[in-house]
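hey so i finally got around to running the thing on that chain from the lab meeting. sorry it took forever, my laptop kept dying and i had to restart like 3 times. anyway pasting the input first so we r on the same page abt which one it is
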Amino acid sequence: MESPIFPEFKKIQLTDINTITGFTNGFPPFSDFNATSLICWNANRDNSFSFLNNNLVIKIKDYLNEGYVYSILGTTQIDNSINTLFQEGIEVLSMTPEVCINSIENPDTFEIQEDKDSFDYIINTHEFTKLSDKNIRKKINKFINSNTNLETKIIDLSNRDQIETIINLNSTWGMSKDFSKAKIDEDFVSINSFINISDKINSLAVGIYINDKLVGFTLNELLNEKWAMGHFGKSINDLKYCSLYCEYATEKELASRGIDFINIQQDAGLPGLRETKSGYHPAYYLKKYKISKKN
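ok and heres what got predicted. didnt touch it at all, straight out
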């Protein structure tokens, strides 16, 4: 099937993974344009894509609010492409990757602002697992010393019983956060989507067990020999430092496989998430911007 050409959009399906990945492989791994992410964070099945001047345009559900946002990735005729999108009634381009901004020939013709809420956090797996930060090392050691029979295992996403433990933990996590049933259900749909396509991508599910009970997990995608994308991570909320240990165990597993970096995605402007991810001391950020018409 031919790729959609703007202004035509196509709703993203599993069969589109190769098309999207084939394009995005030429760029740093920005989370919003990751094919797996586009499929999983798509409860309403409305996420769509198109191509304009050999640039990828996406229309996706706003992560936190009602409605949809648009973004563009590419380096070809960017000024013309942005103006074309504006002419079609799109008022703002959000989460626009820095590589795209750097390709604008006449930046003074647009309003361009850093979109810090959408910056991707990039963790160097080898540096993180050295535990050079005294505060992180202290918390990791406390967690290890406080929990006997602690194990890290690779979760088999083809095993129904193991999948059930993930789903149950996600529900427990959501309820501990006082999330609504609708929010918990939305998380379930997203995680279940990842599980359903896990055999179509190079997935890696890491589980933390205490006395053979799952207390935390991460669901990740190995993008290539050096990069991974962290898609989901949940842990028992009242088990102190469990989420940090999940991150540590995941990075340790990735480093053992020769993976140098993991994109743990954005914080969406949520203060708690920003504090947590900043505390991991990212190696750097994949920066993104908002673009609008100049008044």
